[in-house]
Amino acid sequence: MPRIIIDPESSALAERVALIRTRRTDRARYPEGCVTIVTDEALARASAAPEAGLHAAVVYGPSTSSEGQRLYYLVRWIE
Fold first, then answer.
1. What is the pLDDT of residue 6?
2. Please, what is the average pLDDT of the chain?
3. Sheet architecture: strand order including 29-31
4. Over the stretch 17-52, which tens digit does the pLDDT of each residue have?
5. What is the DSSP letter of 11?
6. Taking the model in full, what pTM does it have?
7. Cis peptide upstream of residue 62 (ω within 30 degrees of 0)
C-alpha cells in the first residue's frame, strides 16, 4: 500500500469510516462516487456486503487529483 502523507493541520482532509463500492480491493485510492462515509466501524461492518461489492474501510480524504477528481485513499479494510 502506498504511503499517505497526512496533513495534521487540514480541516478538510481526515480519516473517515466508509463503505466502498468496488469489485477490486487492490487499489490504493477510490473516486468519491464509490465512497459513502458512515458514522462508525460497527455500522460499516453491518452494512458491508462483500459478495455484492460493498466493503467496509477506513479512508483518508477527500483529496483532489491532478485530473480534478475527488479521491479517497485507502488506509485499511475493516474486516
1. 62
2. 90
3. 29-31, 70-77, 54-64, 14-21, 35-37
4. 999 999 999 999 999 999 999 999 999 999 999 999
5. S
6. 0.85
7. yes
Phi-psi region of 68 (alpha: psi -120 to 50; beta: other; left: phi over 0): left
Beta-bridged to residue 77, according to DSSP, are 57
Instruction: Encode 26-75 in three state secondary structure.
Output: CCCEEEHHHEEECCCHHHHHHHCEHHHCEEEEEEEEEEECCCCCEEEEEE
The CA distance from 71 to 79, in Å, is 22
Residue 21 confidence (pLDDT): 98
Contact criterion met (CB below 8 Å) for 32 and 21: no
